[in-house]
Amino acid sequence: MSSILTNNSAMVALQTLQKTNQSMEKTQSEISTGKSVNSARDNSAVWAISKVMESDVQGFKGIAESLSLGESTVSVARQASETVTDLLTEIKGKVVAAQEENVDRAKIQTDIDGLRDQIKSVVNAAQFNGLNMVKGTDEVNILASLDRASDGSVSASQIEIARQDLTADAGVYNTAGTNLSPNATVSDPAANALSATGNTAKVTFNTGAYDDATTASIAVDGVQIDFTGDTAAGLDQDDAATFFAGRINALGLEGIEASVTGAELTVTSARGFEGVNVDVSGLAGNAAGTEITELNGTAVNQASGEIDERAENITFSTSAAVNEGDGYRVSFGGESFTYVAGPNEGFGDVAQGLKAAIDGKGMEGITTRVTQDSSGAHQIKIDNASSTDMTLAAIGNADGEASGGLFGLDGLDVTTEASASSALSNIETMIDKAIDASASLGSAQSQVGIQNEFVNKLSDSLKSGIGTLVDANMEETSARLQALQVQQQLGIQALSIANQAPQNVLGLFR
Predict the structure, then answer these.
(1) Could you say which DSSP state residue 236 is in?
(2) Beta strands in 270-334 (DSSP E)
(3) What residue numbers bound the domain in which 299 lies?
(4) Taking Cα atoms as reference points, which of 404, 450, 447 lies closest to residue 164?
(5) For the chain, how many structural domains are there in total?
(6) Is residue 281's pLDDT more than 90?
(7) Residue 282: which CATH number?
(8) Percent of the chain residues past pLDDT 90, beyond the cut
(9) Tens-digit pLDDT profile for residues 377-390
(10) In this structure, are 271 and 221 located in the same domain?
C-alpha cells in the first residue's frame, strides 16, 4: 500500500540514520578526548570509580612532594652528624696527644676549642627549609601515605623520625618536678663524705713475746711480708707491728701507707678507684688470734678483708625507668652538677652526663669514673684527692628540659694531666652519640626514600588502572569510525530513496 501521508520507509531510514549519527558523535568524542568514559553520562559507575582514583593520584602527588622534602631534610641532618663525628674524632686525636707529659697542652686546648666551635657551627647550620633535626628532641612526622579502607574512609599515615640532638646545651633542671631522689643512692648515706684521706684497716697484735718459734706473715695487695721472732732481742707485739709497718712502706705500693701506734698497725689506702686486700691469716705463734679489728671505719674481727676504694659512688636504680626530662643533680664542695636525660636514655647516660658535668668544672683533686656493679647497676664514682673533706649528696626531679647530646663538649679540658685523662673518656662518649645519631638519621633517610619510591610507583599503577577503565581503544575506535561513516552514507542514500517513494504516486494520476 502506498501513502502520501505516511512514509514508513522514510521513518525507518531516518531512525537508522539518527542512530548512526549518534554512534558517530560518541566515536568522534572518544577520538577527540581519548576517553571512552568522559562523563558520568557515558558510564556512571566507571566514571565514579575513576574520579575517586584520580583524587588519590592527586593526593599521592602531594605526598611524594612531602616525602622528597622530608628526605632532603633528613639528608642534611645526616651529613651534619657525620661531619660532627669526624670533628669529634679529630678532637679525640688532640686529647690523646695531651696524655703525654712533654707536650704543650695549652696549644692543644686552643685547637680543641676551634674544633668545638666548628661543631657548633655545623649543628646550627644543618637546617632545611627552617627545620633542624640535630637540635632539640621533638619528633618530626613526615606524611607517608593515604590509606583508603574498604568502606571508603581515608586516613593519613606518618613516618615518625626522632631528632638527634647534637647540641652542647646544659638543659633545664626542674626543681618542682616529681621527686626521683630514691633512684640515686649515695654509697655512704650516713656520713655522705668525700674523704680526702682514704680508708683503713687496723690490725691489733696480741700481747706477748715474739721468740724464736714465732713466724708470721701479712699480705697487702697480694704482696706477702714475713716476720721471724727473736728471743734474744726480746721482741714483743709492738716490735712486730713496727716491723710490718716499715716493710709495708718500703714496698712503695701506690697509694698505700702504714703507721703504728703501740701494738696497733694501721694500713691506709688512698687509691681512688681500687680496693686493697689485707690478709693477716699468716700471723701465728705468740701472735695467734691476731686479726683485723677495724675495717673502713667499722669494728670487725676477721682474718682478711678489703680496704675500700677512696672514691664514693652514687648507684642508680636497676628497676626504675628514665624518661625524657628526668634530671639528676650531684652536690659537693659547694658546687652542684646536673644532667637532664633526653629521649631513649638510661641511667648509664645519666651517669656519663654527670661525669661530664663534674669533669667540666675542673675542681682540683676531683676525678670521676662510670662503672657498673655486680648487679648491673650504673654508678658514678667520685674521688677526692684534695686536702679537704666534702659532703656528697644526690637528688633527682622529673619534667625538666633535656641536656644536649654533646653535653660536656664545652667542658673538655686538657690543660692538666688529670683533666686530659677525664677528657679521653668523655670524648669517647660524645663520639658514640654522634655515631648513633648518624646511623639513626641514615636509617630514617633510607626509609623515607623507599616510601617515596613506592608512592611514585603506586601513582603510576593507579594512573594505569584509571586508563584501563576510561581510556578509549584508538585502534578499535578508528575502525568503528570508518564503518560508521559508510553506514552514514548508506543511511543518507536510503533516506533519499525512501523520500522519493511518494512522488511515484503521481504516476498513477497521469
Answers:
(1) B
(2) 276-279, 291-295, 298-302, 304-307, 312-316, 327-332
(3) 199-307
(4) 404
(5) 4
(6) no
(7) 2.60.40
(8) 48
(9) 999 999 999 888 89
(10) yes
